[in-house]
Specification:
Distance between the termini: 21 Å
Number of helices: 5
Structural class: alpha/beta
Number of strands: 10
CATH architecture: 3-Layer(aba) Sandwich
Largest sheet: 8 strands, mixed
Helix content: 25-40%
Strand content: 25-35%
Oligomer: single chain
Order of helices and strands: EEHEEEHEHEEHEHE
Length: 139
Amino acid sequence: MYNFTKYIEWPVEKQRGDFIIGIYGTSPITQELRIIADKKKVGTQTIVIKEFDTPAGLSSCNILYIPENRSAKIDEVAGSCSGRGTVLITDKPGLAKTVSGLNYIKIDGRQSFEINKANLEKQGVKVNSVLLSLGIIVQ
């Protein structure tokens, strides 16, 4: 997830203050992200990991990860984040075709990701062509 930050440009207002990675609900990935946040930055921004139980405050995130067990709420979450510079990352098949910008998938047991440029643009960010070449483009 951290590596995506190298290829995405957030709106100016999201390039100040802390770089917030939100997790909607709970996920094993949270602890891994905390370890990365202790060691890395996004540009000059300190990475802060936050867990959310409700959609309130989600639009403050630069990245919002929605685990598969919370994907039933994706439409509600997407509505609160649309156009606000929040990249939605999911891990349920089909979500990159509908609402998320990035979606983790497994192919032959290996981790990969789908990317939907149009959804990322709706989320208010610009994506570098390098990232497009690394993922599986869906529309």
